[in-house]
Design goal:
alpha/beta; Rossmann fold; two-stranded antiparallel ribbon; 47% helix
Length: 315
Amino acid sequence: MKKLLLVFALTLSTSLAFSQTLVGLDDAIQNGAQEIESRLERGVKVVVLNFNSPSTRFSNYVLDELTAALVNSGRLVVVDRQNLELIQQEMNFQMSGEVSDTSAQEIGMKLGAQSIISGSLEDLGNSYRIRFRAIEVVSAAIQAVPQANIRKDTRTNALLAGAAGTSPSTQTSMTTYPNGLNFSTGRKVGAGFLNIVYGLGSFTMGDWVGGLIVGGAELVGVLCVINGNTTTYDTYGNGGSEPTTAFYFGMVLEVGAVVYGFIRPFQYDTALARKNGTYYAAIEDKNPLYHMSVGLVNSGGDGLDTVNLSFRYHY
């Protein structure tokens, strides 16, 4: 009896410790899929029905990833999502909302599924609680309830960005534009014009590196232009200014900084979207500003007065 109590206590403490460990969203989904598979008999036909969260985008992501995990495992038979969408239109329910057990059973029966899988997300302040639930269609008996605490990382925040009820930290400048980027084209073009003033546009986007590059290049260019004129005198004592190599270099640097100031907001937005996990589409391929590089090249002569501004278009 004492051994049994000891084993129970160890199991309980381990379970509690595990439940309090923060994991990534993808790990939570994979672990949930594995637990559901371990509780259901091999070959059972299941439908991944709905996931209740403040963001439709977050719910769709979880549903797609959970479905993929179950399909790739091959232990269970997963109902095609297209069939589910037909039932969704017929019964007018939201895959990102809450569905009653009675409605879930009816949907499962229509699809010929033996078990229904649903889930939900709860904000705990410093983390999120994600829960999945598998129930039997005929008896409504609960078969599995995997759950985990997930981190509020960039991926989770990006998927929940702008959702009602999320914490202010998740409601950043991201506005979920069609290509998953964070700033509109107008905002980026406006930042390009502001970049003429020593990289001010990049600073307003939060791009400190870009602002320092553009602003620093412009400042060096101005100094070169100012100091690049020398005064010479002829035999009669008449003076005149003559541009030097530094003057031409400063002019080229100024033009390059202005042009790069327009390109930088587009490049920064793409990099930010990739970092946040919100980059999906390639409609940026239609915009030449995404594919243009600016550089200073020597055209083959001697000295800096042969340096030219080079533009390169690439894919």
